Amino acid sequence: MGPFFPLLVLSILTPQASSSAEPRFLEAIRVVSARPAEGFTKGEVSLKAPDGTELLLREGDTLAEEGGAKLKDVASGVLTFTRQVTGGDGERGESLIVVRFDASGKTRVREYRTVGDVPTPRAPRPDSR
């Protein structure tokens, strides 16, 4: 059985409860090439939009088409973006967008949102026996 985090609470919102756009652009693009970070060089990815436009993004760059999503990490087969989101009641939070891609460049997108007061997770304490 894996670790247990009793104080880990995440408020996950459905897309209807947020004013931020869903990651539709990232679902429609193709990944042409991706190079993970190496030494002092930032990772970068080349994307092809549905209209044929090619985009080159480096870690730290912002993707305006995706509500200001910032490219956080480039790994083999996976891109990670973050962006600010607002919940239905005006609370602010953060969204983590994970884009997986196959050898042909086809993407699969998952978005994880946390909004509101989310306590900082603490590691479980060892049993004091």
State the end-to-end CA separation. Answer: 20 Å
Shape: globular
Poorly predicted sequence stretches spanning 5 or more consecutive residues? 4-19
Which CATH architecture is right?
Answer: Roll
Q: Could you spell the SSE succession in H and E letters?
A: HEEEEEEEE
Let me know the average pLDDT. 78
Count of the separate structural domains: 1
CATH class: Mainly Beta
Quaternary class? single chain
Query: What is the fold-level CATH name, i.e. the topology?
Result: SH3 type barrels
Q: How many strand elements?
A: 8
The number of helical runs is: 1
| Beta-strand percent range | 35-45%
Biggest β-sheet description: 5 strands, antiparallel
Helix content: under 10%
Rg from alpha-carbon coordinates: 17 Å
In words, what does this structure look like?
The structure is a single chain. The chain is mainly beta. It has one domain (15-115): SH3 type barrels. It is 4% helix and 41% strand. It contains one helix and eight strands, in the order αββββββββ. The chain has one helix at 24-28; strands at residues 30-35, 44-48, 54-58, 62-63, 69-75, 78-86, 92-101, 107-115. The strands form two sheets. Strands 4-5-6-7-8 form a five-stranded antiparallel sheet. A three-stranded antiparallel sheet has the order 1-2-3. A hairpin with a 5-residue loop joins strand 4 (62-63) and strand 5 (69-75). The longest helix has 5 residues, at 24-28. The radius of gyration is 17 Å and the shape is globular. The two termini are 20 Å apart.
